[in-house]
Amino acid sequence: MSDDTRLLIRHARILSPNGEFLLGDVECDRQITRIAPDLSLEPSTGKERSTQEVDATGLTLLPGVIDPQVHFREPGLEHKEDLFTASCACAKGGVTSFLEMPNTKPLTTTQAALDDKLRRAAEKCLVNYGFFIGATPENLPDLQTASPACGIKIFMGSAHGALLVAQEEALEPIFATGTRLIAVHAEDQARINQRRQEFAGITDPAIHSQIQDNQAALMATQLALKLSKKYQRRLHILHLSTADEAELLRRDKPAWVTAEVTPQHLLLNTDAYAKIGTLAQMNPPLRSPHDNEVLWQALLDGVIDFIATDHAPHTLEEKAKGYPNTPSGMPGVETSLPLMLTQAMQGRCTVAQVANWMSTAVAKAYGIPNKGAIAPGYDADLVLVDLETYRPVLREDLQTKCGWSPFEGWSLTGHPVVTIVGGQVVYDHGKLNTEVRGRALEFVTSSLEVGH
Ligand code: DOR
Fold this sequence. Notes:
452 residues, alpha/beta, Urease, subunit C, domain 1, TIM Barrel, 2 domains, 14 helices, binds (4S)-2,6-dioxohexahydropyrimidine-4-carboxylic acid
């Protein structure tokens, strides 16, 4: 949209920052400029501009989803996904910004690799983007200086080549040096290695949840917490998966620690292996129905701060190799918002909580300015959802290059109807506008500030 064009969203049910809904209109350029019950009655702002109108009658307007953990595979693994296809999937899923992980080829462990990703994203991403810098046992200086980066990613287990930093002695200097956010994939690699040997030869993918068991996750989360407390270091625990970790954090969570959970760890459990086999294989693995329940309660109580998808696409051919030769991971950006809104409509939580977990709280935790709320002055990253119609997740509707979802056949409501990035309509009733480009995100939080 040119600077002279404004977007007018009319007759929407607008989620206000206080969690209440207002029926009315939202005017935006790159940012939200005005909100009122009926903007046609308001005096004009004086500037003559052309207007694109979106009729939002019957639809609910939410802040665009900020997905704080995705794996988009570019560069190097584009046969699974690339920044264009992934960002198309985001636009369709109401995800207007994402934070992407460093396990690409080459790994994002240097400024040059980060710059390359930013260049590629500027060229082809339909939505806004930010990237993690990945820790290795050797790149301490890069971890301090790489910019812009949303944080340092440490794979304490389940790592990809050089990204593994499993030993306490290797973790210690990373926690001790600098102030920027450290996000950990918390699984204990030594325990996983030992259990891999114990269970060697078993090809039922359900064994994955026993090899990489609850204890492996708890041990690594305990270690990360210990180091974070020792050095008073801002810590984020990625994809919390077990009741034990949730209970640990309920008892002992410093103000500078945040945690996230994925929709799949809330809604799927080890029963999924019988239904979808290796498509249910991910790291950390799916757990028991009891873990689902405790994670839900921790989310509702604020022990878990927000939601990430861990979108990690692999091809169906790769997933057909047979356990243990199959890669771990599942896609998620297209289904996360409808999955959570369906839970809200079924009474498990509120729509306002979903918007907080999937946008507001993420913007605060990562210090992303001007995002996560519908208010004048905020960036016009928005999603209009239909909370009345139920539709199944169908393989043929998916935009992700991997072409499958663990939630196929699930009947969901809250599907995005229109997605808006920086005031531009990027997805409209099933059609993508592939001309739209997102922008690089800024990160202003430092030190121990969590922002909420
Ligand atoms: O299951 C997973 N797959 N978990 C991760 O943390 C990484 C991901 C991947 O990149 O495939």
